[in-house]
Amino acid sequence: MKYTILLLSALLLTIFSCDELDKLTQFNMKYSESITVPSSTVIDFPINLSTPSIESNTESTFAGNNTNKNLIETIRLDEMTLTIQSPTSGDFGFLESVQLFINADGLDEIEIAYLEEVPADASNTISLETTGVNLKDYLLKDSFQLRMKSSTDETIESDHEIQINSTFFVDAKILGQ
After folding, report:
1. Coil, helix or strand for 173?
2. Helix (H, G, I), strand (E, B) or coil at 110
């Protein structure tokens, strides 16, 4: 009986310790990029805008978190927000829907975030739903690009500068295992 309790305790301690160790190899990477939505006088105007290439800088981020690209298991988008930087009085009420895609050299473009219906009373910041897809291959490249696809349900009289803020969750192998 004592042996069984000891074995069970050791097993629980090992499982708990692995979970704690696993947390040591998990971290977030944040990226921020801007795009400009041009003014329009047409409703249902389709918008397709791409960011310039975004340097991934993963090597330095991985080194700062005591890992390297060979140990990365998963990278997924956890959070994406869009914020209107200008005009200061701008809001997202002019958008009907939004989709964001990622692409990188040699990889197919895939959807990573969306908002199917942007509320008519949206403020200057909206949060998108994320797809949860593994983006490891995209962020391990030297650079990647984001593309926003949306349609409008209102006209806008001036260009809108939008900041895209992304938080990616990274999970690396524990001690190379």
Report:
1. coil
2. strand
Taking alpha carbons only, the member of 137, 142, 141 closest to residue 74 is: 137
The pLDDT tens digits of the residues spanning 143-153 come to 999 999 998 88
CATH number at residue 55: 2.60.120
Residue 72 forms part of a structural domain: yes
DSSP 30-99: EEEEEEEEPPBS-TT-EEEEEPPPEE--HHHHHHHTT--GGGEEEEEEEEEEEEEEESTT--GGGEEEEE
Backbone angles phi, psi at 72, to 5 degrees: -75, 130
Is 23 a domain residue?
no
97 within a domain of the structure (yes/no) = yes
Range of the domain at 97: 28-176
pTM equals: 0.82
Among 32, 35, 39, smallest CA distance to 57 is for: 32
Residue 159 has φ and ψ, to the nearest 5°, of: -60, 145
Measured CA to CA, the distance from residue 46 to residue 80 in angstroms comes to: 21
Q: How many domains does the chain have?
A: 1
CA-based end-to-end distance of the chain: 33
